[in-house]
């Protein structure tokens, strides 16, 4: 049935958008953990976050959806530090 197919495609698109937002939220959380001002010791190192982004981009995913925006946000936050 065509309407069932359209509903399945729409569900898939919604899930993809949620995953994209989730990846961005995880990136923001990792940046917050890298700041010493939020807690007594650094939980994750800046180098580890950069390594994560580089491996994400090298995995073959589209840069527009998997990392470029997050890497820019990360760079801005680190520069303000």
Describe this entry's structure for a reader.
There is one protein chain. The protein is mainly α and 81 residues long. The chain has one domain. It is built from three helices and no strands. It has helices at 2-34, 46-58, 68-80. The longest helix is centred in the N-terminal third of the chain and has 33 residues, at 2-34. It is elongated and about 55 Å long. It starts with a helix and ends with a helix. The mean pLDDT is 69.
Itemize the secondary structure elements and their pairings:
Layout: H1 2-34, H2 46-58, H3 68-80
Helix pairs in contact: 1-3, 2-3
What proportion strand?
Answer: under 5%
Uncertain stretches: none
H/E topology pattern: HHH
Total count of helical runs of at least 4 residues: 3
Shape: elongated
Average pLDDT, to the nearest integer? 69
The total domain count is 1
Structural class: mainly alpha
Features:
81 residues; mainly alpha; 0% strand
How would you briefly describe this protein structure?
The chain is mainly alpha-helical.
